[in-house]
Input
Amino acid sequence: MYGGTAASTIERFGARIGDKVEVVLSAEGSQGGHHRREIVLKGTLMGPYGPAAEPSLTIKLQNGYNFSMDPEGISSMKVLERVGTDPQARQRAAEDPSLPLVALIGTGGTIASYVDHRTGAVCPVRSADDLLYLLPELGSICRLRVTMPMSKLSEDMTSSDWTVMACEVVSAFGAGARGVVIAHGTDTLAYSAAALSFVLRDLPGPVVLTGSQRSSDRPSSDSFQNLLHSVMLAAGSDLGEVCVLMHASVSDGTSAVHRGSRVRKMHTSRRDAFRSVGSEPIGTVTDGGVDLTAPYKRADTNTEVRLHGKFSDDAILIHAQMTLDGPLLEAISRKRRALVLAGTGLGHVSSSLVPAIEGLISKGIHVIITSSCINGRVNLRVYSTGRDMLRAGVIEAIDMTPETALVKTMWCLGTLGPDALSLDRFRELFTSDISGEIGDRSILSAFPGAFYPLDEEDQDP
Amino acid sequence: MSVLDELSRPEGPDISGLGLKVGLEVHRQIEGTKLFCSCPTDLSDDPFDTVRRKLNITRSELGEEDDAVQMEVGRGRVNTYQVQASQCLVELDEEPPHPPSQGHIETALVVAKMLNAIVPSEVQFMRKLVADGSDTTGFQRTALVGLGGHIDVMGLRLGIVSVCIEEDAARKISETDEGPVYRLDRLGTPELEVTTEPTMNDPELAGAAARTIGDMLRSTGLFKRGIGTIRQDVNVSIEGGARTELKLVQELNMVPRTIVTEAIRQHLLIEVASVLRERGVTPLSIPLTVVDVTDLFFSTSSKVVQNGLKGGGRVLALPLKGFGGLMGERTVMARLQGSSTALVRKGVDDVRRLGPEFAYHVRVRTGLKGLFHSDELPSYGITVEELTAVQEHLGVDPALDGFVMVCAEHGRAMEALKAVHRRALASLLGVPSEVRRPLPDGRSEYMRPMPGPARMYPETDIPTIVITDDMKEAARKRVPEAPSARVHRLAVGFGLSEETVRSLNNLELLDELEGLSASADPKLVSLLLLQGYPRAREKGLDPSSLSEKALLGTISGVGEGLYSKEALPSVLCQLLTLRISGMDEESALRDARKACSGDTDLGVLVEAARKVAESGRDIIMAKGEGALGPLMGPLMKEMRGRFDGALISSTLKDGIRRVMEGRD
Output
């Protein structure tokens, strides 16, 4: 709502936001200075937009433009037409009972949205009806059920939200869903995907997390394809894993299916920001169908899905770099049960930090080493600092991404409970492959963006 | 008899009685970087990658029924974008827009001030939905920076509705079966749009107004120049008609003609509606009853139909009761009704009416290029017997009724006739409000329905820009001298005729005149600009690529006695040709001056011709005057660019004769 002079001006003339109004605005004349002239504007009174401290009042002119003016300049305002209600009621088409049931779980932000042509306001999709109206194709693929257990920006998500999502998935399968799609903000989507892949195993169908990199209020948004392809994957594949589906390239057409524990957001804004790290994507989806090319776990329709383990927040992920010293490391690790360090290169930290790490481990704090290189395998046996770190008792995160290593640490702590105090018990669970997050081979093609293999003519003579 | 008939004169139709109302939207590109990123705005032929995208626009977002049709067309189509090294993720809609360049906003404020418009307290960018894929986002970003205002044209005061700053769309390269192909070099180029009140009743006045606004913008020195950097959309309506927007009239001198043609088109459509009313045609009397008449064409000799059938196509027909004679020219109606057509007023009686409109709608909707309507048959190899057979099969009266026929794959043909039917229904109401594309001959074709205000919503990626008093004051200070005042000042100051300076103004060369005249004789400068520039441009050369130093060096050759002032255009072209061949500017100038020096002295040519003739004595002895051909080459090689080809040839002929006559 407006405040200050804008609010009092609207009130004085008895107008409401959304009304069609006629405003007489007194403005500086063409000669400048003291000469004034009046101009009559007709349009729809809009809500406040832009910096809240500004006293401007905005109307949407008949030519569609929003015009902001200083309310002091308004000499009169006449209400021409009161704001009405939306006459466009959505008609829902009858469902085909032979189609598979797909559960769509909304977690926050907007799954999709459309523009209200009367007011120019952007309306988020809130129901299956809204979504079917926007993407009618969905109606011929499945019977869609939409729930919204939470409404959170993905940067605000916590580990308890992972549990809420996981429970929602369990009840969706319990209600007969063939597959589940989770719409999620992209910032922490990879964390949630990793988390779900640890607590949800032996699945009766696909659990597909998806989102959009370009806002859903633009006709070019990637959300439409991502949603459509996610639903296709959930409704029609025998995948029994948690996965992430997003654009495979900056072009529309192909979506990539990534293993939930192997995926990472690698760009702030591009549609193809999500990449599989250390492995190739499981497959692709196009309008033509689903094509899963890499080995994957098949869905087991006889299984009764349940939650495996839980999460503890007593872990933290930090980058090892030049300003991190012993006292700081100790301060950060206070009251934690585990520390995930993204080291340099093969996983190293400054040799000056090794005594502090040794101290933490002796206090029962587990220290897990990943690499800030993101791609590649941790190996602390090559150089002396690494060997010192191993001697101090650190655990190598093998080829997990730093985020997956953090989430897995949280899951190991939560799942083992008091047993997590044992370094051996912790190490045993942490270093065993739970959901495909660990690979024992590093293959050449699993490094996105690399120019390989070199063509002969590209090679230096 | 209509108003138009009464006012028709031998020199062309007089439309002053039609209640014409014209408004203009003048668009001009702002110089500098793109509006929402730091990329250059030059068009480019560099290599490119391609990105393919679809847009998702819903019916409610466009609001109107016709727009919804457009949306269906847009939906499912793949837009292909060519992206080059000079574009970034912003143009690709892979990255949020950067804040708009402060300089571009200032430019807009300067123009708002020049046009006496009111500036809003905050500038708010809006998204205007565009379904055709020419914006990667699916919308064009545009902001209102001035409201109201006025200019004076031909002694009249013309109201200004608005001044907007917006981003230009991507450049269309081609259209494929899959969808359109665009290049992103132009997308995001800042553009100012000035909209006038739709109050002009004289086509010439509209042309003059377009020129005046264009000149005012240019006088700021803040806008791009040259082909494609300025264009005007013209809004035309007549009494009883509807507003149509004619897009991208690039040539200013086409503006009046396009307006006249459009006014007549609207008048003829109003006339068509009244004839339909007289004949009792209502929406109920023209149902969508599509009839398959393929059987009547199995042994046709029409190549068009044969080809269509070969690909498994069908011939579908839509009867249109009461439309006989209304699709073709007025003369067709007279012929069908058996009256005389002695008087054919050019531009009125010979204008085809609903036929082209049907064809445009079919093409936009289905991509089909051809349809047949009864007013133009028999033709295209379709015989009078086939025409009669179709008429009998459809049960239509040849004198009063019409039909439209399409030969294509069944589904597509059906879609085409639906589009015709929709347009036929609209013709009962007269003139539909729509956006049209002007054709080179002054006519125009249907592009899309007129968009409503519905398709605008706020651009949430860009915070509003608060316009402070300081910004307004700074803009006021940058308002340049009015173009007419400048012409007068330069004419007096440089001792040139106002006529000359005005011509230079029309060529957009006043800055060059003022700049060069600071160090050279204004008369020589104006000669170079007025004659040299157009000649160079005709040859596809770009004089604006030269430095001031090179231009001054060209002019100074006259003072140094190297060549006459008449040679200036040749020197300029020579210089530019050498530059294009890859020579650096300094060497090119030196060689061009040298090549053209002696232009004043015919003796040089005579001497050269003599030497060539002398060296070719053997050939001359053998061939006589026939030696001209073989000897011309060497002489041309030496003298090309300095003398006219004909002069070189005649001088050589003289030389040859001298040798033959033994005078040397």
